Amino acid sequence: MSLELNVELILYHFMQIGIAFLLALPVAINREQSAGGAGLRTFPLVAVAACAYMLVGMSVYEGSDAEARVMYGILTGMGFIGGGAILKSNGKVGGTATAAAIWNTGAIGVSVAYGRYEIALVLSFINFVVFQLANPIKKISGANRNQE
């Protein structure tokens, strides 16, 4: 087996992983400033890892059913990581929105791996907007019983 380096492919994958990283930053910065838990390190790493695993799966399995199983594994892993963000204390549950955002960030990484940048951009935008607007709207409506 030859280990020939394809510089164009390396640069293309570097670009894809970089895009996944950048699209995770808005929600990462928001979470870092307000949540104190998952934040500036977690969200970009989730997006980068999901993108990288999918890129590897795509290159190794090339359109087979096994490629889909790689994606299922990523989805399951994001659920597991997100589950760690959910905490119950004094009858209140917190962290569910952060868990959902982690799952969404994994989807950003997978979308970028498939070259579906428009989907990744929309997911990033929605993640950011929800966290920017949710708490002010919850405060106005009086529904802020359980800050996430």
Describe this entry's structure for a reader.
- The chain has five helices and two strands, in the order H-H-H-E-E-H-H.
- It has 148 residues and is mostly helical.
- The protein has one domain.
- It has a two-stranded antiparallel ribbon with strand order 1-2.
- Helix 4 runs antiparallel to helix 5.
- It is elongated and about 60 Å long.
- The protein starts with 6 loop residues before the first helix and ends in a 7-residue tail after the last helix.
In short:
With 148 residues, this protein is mostly helical. It is built from 5 helices and 2 strands; from the N terminus they run αααββαα. It has one domain (7-139).
SS content category? mainly alpha
Helix content: over 70%
Radius of gyration (Å): 17 Å
Kindly give the count of domains.
1
DSSP helix count? 5
- End-to-end C-alpha gap: 51 Å
Average pLDDT score: 88
Number of strands: 2
Strand content: under 5%
Order of strands across the biggest sheet?
1-2
The description of the largest β-sheet is: 2 strands, antiparallel
Order of helices and strands: HHHEEHH
Shape: elongated
Low-confidence stretches: none
